[in-house]
Amino acid sequence: MKRNIIAVAMIIAVMGMMVPASVFAADKPKFAIVFKNTGNPYGEKQLQGFKNGIEEQGYEAILRSPELPTAEAQIQIIEQLIAQRVASICIVGNDYDALQPVLTKASKAGIKVFSLDSSVNPASRLTHVNQADSEKIGQTLIKAAYDMTGGKGGEIAILSATSQASNQNIWIDFMKKELAKPQYASLKLVKIAYGDDLRDKSVSETEALLRSYPNLKVIIAPTTVGIAAAAKVITDKNLIGKVLITGLGLPSEMATYIENGACPYMFLWNPIDVGYLGAYVATALVNGKITGAVGEKFSAGRLGNYTITKAPDGGTEVLLGPPFKFDKSNIAEWKNVY
Ligand code: RAM
Predict the structure, then answer these.
(1) pLDDT above 80 (res 24)
(2) Whose CA is nearest to atom 8 of ligand 1?
(3) Is residue 299 domain-shared with residue 239, that is, in the same domain?
(4) R_g over Cα of the chain
């Protein structure tokens, strides 16, 4: 009897050793990221950075984007990720508040939830990966617009993404605060238009701005989709020099328009690094190294060490670093990088 038990135990042990690795792959934690919508090269680079950061740590990344940049579409994806029992969800929010019920459901299921690029409210997230200081972005863009008027002032407009995108709205709020300062009294913000991070809508919104405001001097587009569309319209309509474009743009998409003068200069951070930093926040949360509280420290692979700080909205955040300025002097060297 005893011998039989030992024999069975040995067979089970040998079978265990023979079980293919793929059977265990189901247990490998999956780290998900949900971007705003498909068809945005900036988003693709952010997803790529996340994937690189997750895979170099030996885990599996799930990259998702809805077709349209709406909260409803993201809610559907998050429901699927909850059912898939992912370890964490990194959300690039299409809405600050509307995702709260589904993200709370995810947290209750044991999933570590945090936002990146475009935040969700503090009650919906453990922390937020912020690409750059939001107030400085607002201040820098208003100064750029003012300087592009040659210090004379005049009419300016903002071409944003969707009206619900929290990153856009935070930057726009800081731009409005900056505009209220006496040194910018001569600048008049005539309109905030929404191109929804869709190329065609951004083009038609730019055309509408030009029709409605013939004295427009500068368009600030704090979205990579919007700025490229606006610069193309200015170029196609031979308006270079009459209306100038600035904002946040991808060097690869904007090189032509920086070189032709439609956009004298613009700003951005490295979107690959934003996603990569997100990957390390995800694993640090899942592995219990951080909880998302102020003062916690973690290391983010090739980017080095980070500390969680207080965010302006009362939640916490991890700040990637200062943005870069791109102009004629350096665009050639960056256009092939991102
Ligand atoms: C667009 C998106 C993104 C934003 C960049 C600057 O691609 O709206 O969220 O961070 O622009």
Answers:
(1) no
(2) 223
(3) no
(4) 23
